[in-house]
Amino acid sequence: MSELIKADDVEFIKKEMVRYEDKYSAIIPSLYKIQARHGWVSEDSVEELSKVMEIPSADILEVRNFYTMFNQKPVGKLHIQVCTNVSCAMNGGRELTDHICKKYNVKKGEVSSDGTVTVNQVECLGSCDTAPMMQINDKYWENLTNESAVEIIEKLRS
Amino acid sequence: MEVKLLTEHYDDKSFQGIEGYKAKGGYEVLKKAFKMKPQEIIDEVKASGLRGRGGAGFPTGMKWGFLPKNDETRYLLCNADEGEPGTFKDRKMMERAPHQLIEGMIISSFAINSPKSYIYIRGEYNESTAILRKAIDEAYAAGMLGKNIMGSGFDHDLDLYVGAGAYICGEETGMISSLEGKKGQPKLKPPFPAVQGYLSKPTIVNNVETLAAVKYIIRDGAEAYKKHGTEKSCGTKLFSVSGNVQKPCTVEVPLGYSLMDLIELCGGLKPGRKLKAVIPGGSSAPVLTAEECVDAKMDYEDLAAKGSMLGSGAVIIIDDSNCMVDLLNVIMHFYHHESCGQCTPCREGTGWLEKMVKRIVTGEGRLDDIDLVLKVANQMKGRTICALSDAAALPAISFVEKFKKEFEYFVREGKSMVTSKGAPAHA
């Protein structure tokens, strides 16, 4: 029935809708599913999800917009999120962000011209004992230096 | 001295799985709990003096006591949305001892007669989520969850719910809104969640560490648990120590432990550095000066007497290489970003605080900005639905009042008093 939400995903969404006491609780897991498929959640996807879930699109859109983990625009193949909160800031997290941006010639929040990298500063990721750190897609990389971070990104890019 | 109750088996990799956990006495306490009456468990937790380990420090047994005395379905919600900057103790526990949390949750659910519980975990914790999912499956397969657990006649289901990146969801009613599939905006209290929570049903929200501690209170008894800590701050506490110490880590010590000893446990400061300040309970806790740290005890009362708080136990050690104006700028950016936007004093106040501190840190500050920061922050306190507004105001006030010279210098000279560099490029 839909272009953006595949049949497998519809099946997942329907299951989530009966997993919790209220079908609204399935909105967040469903948005994750869409993001796993496309890398971000477009307003068109929200419209389609609204039809699948029979929930007004405004209710879904405000959830997408409220939570920072839902990307509202496309991101690079590697979504690099560097923590710059207190403990990481004290240990070079901001300099690390700048270093990575410079290395890949990309501004914060934008996609590099080859589509491989997006760099963002994020708030505390609960990894303060291993500062500075970054999250690339789902995975944490800790105890970084400017050099080791670039080495990790290079490996993942290839 | 460290006292290892919750962290005893952290270094044993097998403790993560149910077999290794059982080999160390895992799920034996649950067996013991099933031989008790639910009310006896609640009384034991009350007698233990256990207070919420997530930040607010509310007595756990008393919270449970607020549940209505009827048959209405009630829920237990484990707060694993660890987001207070500087805090990482819950993540460590979920990764190293997931069954300890699950066992604590089943015991607590039995005590409050809850048929269903959720662990609400922050979205970024992918590794903890995967480990917990596996542990929950193992617990179901071993008959520790589901119908008629251990032949007790008690049924319980436990599910995991993954958040999506919002500090405010660590506030219990914000968490409930989020679990209900909405924006994570806190709700007006009363009614408190114990009366009207998740889907308007009675709901108890407890932190990861709190629920794990319940297991040890039932194992050892309230009297034995109370032997750790002080008269009013009972038991052990996990501290997440980070910043300028040589060995940042999670440590478990009795409440009332000396802050200076805690710093030593984490390897002390770097050679040649002097202690400048400590944030003792996550970034919302008012900062302590080095002088205040000398005799500080890590418990609810002593830190409150010093005008700060124990909070989540996130201890950020700040040495003399740091510029306090710069650090406050980082903290103000955070609270502005995380304000849910519901209440005007918080939505506008966090924005103005960030703007003014940023103006100072970029060398554009005016002398009256310093007093204006204090004025705005003081107007934000106690005027909103939840505590986020206060959480932003308190560090602003304490940083400015206690390190006023640094702020004045920055305004006057357009550069930091501490670092030789000019205004930080990142501001």
At a glance:
Chain A has 158 residues and is α+β, with helices and mostly antiparallel strands.
3D architecture notes:
The complex is a heterodimer of chains A (about 160) and B (about 425). Chain A is about 45% helix and about 10% strand. With about 160 residues, chain A is an alpha+beta fold. Chain A has a four-stranded mixed sheet with strand order 2-1-3-4, with helices on one face. In chain A, strand 3 and strand 4 form a beta hairpin. The termini of chain A are far apart. Chain B is an alpha/beta fold and about 425 residues long. Chain B folds into three domains: about 15-225, Rossmann fold, CATH 3.40.50; about 235-320, Ubiquitin-like (UB roll), CATH 3.10.20; about 325-415, NADH-ubiquinone oxidoreductase 51kDa subunit, iron-sulphur binding domain (de novo design (two linked rop proteins)), CATH 1.20.1440.230. Chain B contains 18 helices and eleven strands. In chain B, the strands form three sheets. Chain B has a five-stranded mixed sheet. In chain B, strands 3-2-1-4 form a four-stranded parallel sheet, sandwiched between helices. In chain B, strands 7-10 form a two-stranded antiparallel sheet. Chains A and B meet through helix 2, helix 4, helix 5 and helix 6 of A and strand 3, strand 5, strand 11 and helix 14 of B.
Please identify the oligomeric state.
Answer: heterodimer
Number of strands of chain A: 4
* Sheet with the most strands: spatial strand order of chain A: 2-1-3-4
CATH-level-4 superfamily name of the largest domain in chain A: Glutaredoxin
Distance between the termini of chain A: 36 Å
Name the features.
heterodimer, A: 158 residues, alpha+beta, Arc Repressor Mutant, subunit A, Glutaredoxin, 2 domains, four-stranded mixed sheet, 7 helices, elongated, B: 427 residues, alpha/beta, Rossmann fold, Ubiquitin-like (UB roll), de novo design (two linked rop proteins), five-stranded mixed sheet, four-stranded parallel sheet, 18 helices, 43% helix, 13% strand
